[in-house]
Amino acid sequence: MILDISWPLTSGMTGYKNKKTFESTHIKLWDQDHVREAQFTCTTHTGTHVDMPAHFLHDGYTSEQAPLDRLIGACRVIDMTHVTECISAEDLYQYDIKEGQRILFKTSNSNHSYDQEFDYNFVYVAHTAASYLVEKKVVCVGIDYLGIERNQPGHPTHKTLLEAGIIIIEGLRLHNVLSGTYTLVCLPLLLQGLDGAPARALLLPD
Hints:
- This protein has helices at 30-33, 89-92, 127-136, 156-163; strands at 3-4, 22-28, 37-42, 49-51, 72-79, 86-87, 102-106, 124-125, 140-143, 167-170, 180-188, 196-205.
- It is an alpha/beta fold and 206 residues long.
- The protein has a single domain, classed as 3-Layer(bba) Sandwich (Glucose Oxidase, domain 1).
- The protein has a seven-stranded mixed barrel with strand order 4-10-9-7-5-11-12.
- Strand 9, helix 4 (156-163) and strand 10 (167-170) form a beta-alpha-beta unit.
- The chain is globular, with a radius of gyration of 17 Å.
- The N and C termini lie close together (10 Å).
- The mean pLDDT is 95.
- It is an enzyme of class 3 (hydrolase).
- Homodimer.
């Protein structure tokens, strides 16, 4: 069974801080043209997406340079639905996180639907947890909301992870996913020279 953990891209979907991030228009209609065609516009951080280092680091790599081996492979979904504010380093000690792992956090954020008002109080990953994940040498971290941190001054969580080469996936949909081990397949669009990219993310149960 394949688990699709991506948000659908659609008009009216949740945007970060309620910004409109996706619009689509039908440019050919069946009744008129006997064919269907549409065009859409979106930001690089719409729905399920990958943050590239260029998003927060001056000399960070861009979308076409994303190391896909960090986005494809064995991963762990860790249930953090008991956390009400932020995931701290102390929250992670019990999970025996190991070098090379891909870690996806399932939180109470997953109770939101893709078209709800933006929740400014979403559960996020604290700087202490980011530092701990760097210490453990994980290769990928994902979370089930449109940001891995709120608007923390200086964006320490993003910078700590990205400076260590840890790739970030945001906007995962994990409501129906149990904690455990899976194979992750996450493919960001091949966007030349940009700071992030929407992605399709899948889990294959072990």
